[in-house]
Amino acid sequence: MKISFNDKEVKKMSKAQFLKQHEYFADKIDLEAYYNKVNPKKVVKGKSE
Amino acid sequence: MENCNCETGMHNLQSAACLITPGITRKYIFVETFKADGTINGIDLTVPFTETEIDALLTNSDKALRGYMSDSVSNFVTERADPNTETIDNVNYITSQGTRTMGSDFLASCADLSNKINGNNCIDISVYLIDENNGWNGVVTRDNYLDPIRLERNAFGKVVFPTETTIFKVSYSSTWQKSVKDGNLKTIPFSIHGTDVLSKRGLVDVNESDASALTSTTATVRFTSCDGSASGSAFTGLLVGDFTMFNTTTALAVVPSLAVENPDGTYLLTFAAQTAADLGTITATSAGFEFEVANITYL
Q1: Which of B237, B257, B273 is the closest to A5 by Cβ?
Q2: What pLDDT, on the 0 to 100 scale, is given for residue B4?
Q3: In a 3-state reduction of DSSP, which class is residue B16?
Q4: B133 CB neighbour count, 10 Å cutoff
């Protein structure tokens, strides 16, 4: 099975939307992990007091 | 027949010292005879005609302007029949030129080539002959253009079965249109276009099958190219960015977000849900190929 995501499209989606749209593949692909890879959480560095 | 010009008198018959003559034809490049504006689909000799222009011609997305290159040609023969005559007082007077037939064999083509050849007869088709020296042969009947050789709509392709002593082939025959004169044949030689045209390949058809929507956000399609087998040869390796989807009901593009190929040549596409019963299309692009457009109904 060869898989290719359109990361540009994935980036436009919310996680819920992404999971819903790709639920057909939920048992074949770790969708959540892929979404998190494409949309890494931004780490905001806070100023130390 | 050729009209005499009594004002200029007889023509000098001596040729120049250096001659460029057609070599044995090894490939055809078919074109539609006319452009949309009614002018002949010829090659403008006042602008560069090099590999760039040749590549653009062979892959033109406008089918009416594309050059359709054939597989390699074998056993090319062409012969003009004797002129038609009227015999008066035992003297044969020429009334019209004889027809020129052209034929050849394709040794490495699918049987469906015969269908394609026969199916092209509804279109006014012309041909350039690419010879063994990469000479690009056509006719000059107007200033600054090499025009293709216009054909009658009687092209015929047939499958020739192999025997104990012969191999499988697709045989092709056609007739030059009556208006084409042998004397107008001209060549753009390799020294001008500088391109190994014989090493070029025309676009290859990729056929779709089994296209359908599976859910509101998924659809499947299978792409194959002709290899002579009943199921065709799976077209593998397409990525999500190679696909183009369209909702014809809303006239809006649908962008697939995922393509899964499983098994080879069968693709499952994921996209944003469309309104149920909307109609749509799926196709793909890959350099050197032309994909059939699949129709689906969204769920």
Answers
A1: B257
A2: 73
A3: coil
A4: 16
pTM of the model: 0.88
Q: Does the domain made of B204-297 have the CATH classification 2.60.40.1220?
A: yes
3-state secondary structure of B113: helix
**B100 vs B180: CA distance, rounded Å:** 9
Residues of B near A (Cβ–Cβ under 8 Å) read 214-215, 217-218, 237, 239-241, 255-262, 268, 270-273
What residue in A sits closest to B217 (Cα-Cα)?
Answer: A21
CA B284 to CA B235: how far, in whole Å?
A: 11
A21 → closest Cβ in B239, B257, B259? B257
Under an 8 A CB cutoff, do A4 and B262 touch?
A: no
Enumerate the residues of chain B whose CB falls inside 8 A of the CB of residue A23.
217
Mean pLDDT of B3-14: 83
B187 by Cβ neighbours in 10 Å (0-12 / 13-18 / 19+) ranks as: buried
> What is the tens place of the pLDDT at every residue in B89-127?
999 999 999 999 999 999 989 999 999 999 999 999 999
User: A24 and B239: CB-CB below 8 Å?
Assistant: no
Which residues from A are below 8 Å from B218, CB to CB?
Answer: 24
Strands, E, within B196-277: which ranges? Answer: 204-215, 218-225, 233-234, 243-247, 252-254, 258-261, 266-270
Residue range B204-231, pLDDT digits in tens: 999 999 999 999 999 999 999 999 899 9
Write out the H or E segment, with its range, that includes residue A36: helix A31-38
pLDDT in tens, B51-66: 999 999 999 999 999 9
Q: Kindly identify which residue of chain B lies nearest to residue A12, measuring between CA atoms.
A: B257
Domain extent listing, chain B: 25-199, 204-297
DSSP string, B268-282: EEE-----TT-EEEE
Share of residues in chain B with pLDDT > 70 (%): 99
User: What's the ipTM?
Assistant: 0.84
Which chain B residue has the Cα nearest residue A17? B272
Nearest to A6 among B217, B218, B255 (CB): B255
